[in-house]
Amino acid sequence: MVKIVDDRKIVVTKSAAGQVHAFSAVCTHSGCTVKGVEAGSILCVCHGSQFNPVTGAVVQGPAQTPLATIPVQVRNGIVDFA
Fold first, then answer.
1. What is the DSSP letter of 33?
2. Among 26, 7, 4, 1, which Cα is nearest to 77's?
3. How far apart are CA 82 and CA 64, in angstroms?
4. Domain range holding 19?
5. Tell me, what CATH number does 38's domain have?
6. 2 has a pLDDT exceeding 60
7. What is the DSSP-derived secondary structure letter of residue 82?
8. What is the DSSP secondary structure assignment for residue 31, as one 8-state letter?
9. Which of 23, 74, 77, 80 has the most crowded CB, counting CB atoms within 10 A?
10. How many domains, in total, are found in the chain?
11. 3-state class of 4 per DSSP?
């Protein structure tokens, strides 16, 4: 599962184990908004950077810095950003 919260520029992912993760949806390479998960990575279509959907780490450049982690909690099935 992946959801991009456009008004806050946050990308939310859910792992196969059910863990929810949130990151800045702004690519650290040139500031484009990532477009979602493709082939197991968060993808920025501007220049092809890919990020791990669980950690935000760079999987493939040109980005060299991971996506910023956004604190998140799930309460009664609702995602809440800290």
1. B
2. 1
3. 26
4. 2-81
5. 2.102.10.10
6. no
7. -
8. -
9. 23
10. 1
11. strand
